[in-house]
Amino acid sequence: MASDQATYCLIFHSRLAVDDQESYLRSLTEVRESLEQGLITNLITEGLKPDFEALEKILEKMDEEAKSGLVTSATDRKFHEELLAPLNNPLSILLLQVFWRIFDELLEARFDPVAAGKTADRHHAILLAIKSADARGARIAVNSHFDGLRNRIGSRDFKID
After folding, report:
1. Does position 60 have pLDDT exceeding 90, yes or no?
2. CA distance linking residue 37 with residue 10, whole number of Å
3. Is 88 left (phi over 0), alpha (psi -120 to 50) or beta?
4. Is 160 part of any domain?
5. What pLDDT score does 71 carry?
6. 89 vs 49, 83, 119, CA distance in Å?
């Protein structure tokens, strides 16, 4: 219930700032990317392993969706939730769900076969870095994953150490 209240408050706030919605979305994107990069780094440094078989199945679905020109936010969300599940941090999942709900509310889905293919490829790169226990590679892959969103809303890119 608190998660829904936070989501509605953030969506309401974004609607009030309708003249500067791009700036609002850029801020949310920066927070979400930072959170995901940190969580994925923690996953690797703590030696935790997600369910690789489940993630591969999600990626198969994502590849099929990409062929149709649109990777759904539900499939994207499922990938990230499954990836981060070993951290056993329900608050991080709730926060990410809030971000997804806001983006789903504020950004219309776009049919774009090229972008959809890149989205699927970027998720494969994230999983490959996780399988290799490559924390820097995972941060780079997450950064690349957010390129599509940054391109849509005009966000700046993060520098990776």
Report:
1. yes
2. 22
3. left
4. no
5. 95
6. 14, 12, 25
Which pLDDT does position 10 carry in this prediction?
61
Residue 106 burial (CB < 10 Å; 0-12/13-18/19+)?
A: middle
- Output the furthest CA–CA distance in the chain (Å, rounded): 44
Question: Which tens digits make up the pLDDT trace of 80-98?
Answer: 999 999 999 999 998 898 8
Residue 61 to residue 57: CA distance in whole angstroms: 6
User: Distance between CA atoms of 138 and 38, rounded to whole angstroms?
Assistant: 10
Q: Structural domain of residue 54, as residue ranges?
A: 2-153
- The number of domains in the chain is 1
The answer to whether residue 139 is domain-embedded is: yes
**Tokens for 64?**
């099929």
Residue type for 45, please?
Answer: T
Contact 97, 10 (CB under 8 A): no
Q: Structure tokens of 72?
A: 């759904």
For 140: left if phi > 0, alpha if psi spans -120 to 50, otherwise beta; the answer is alpha
* CATH code of the domain covering residue 49: 1.20.120.530
Q: What is the pTM of this model?
A: 0.84
Other CB atoms within 10 Å distance of the CB of residue 140 = 18
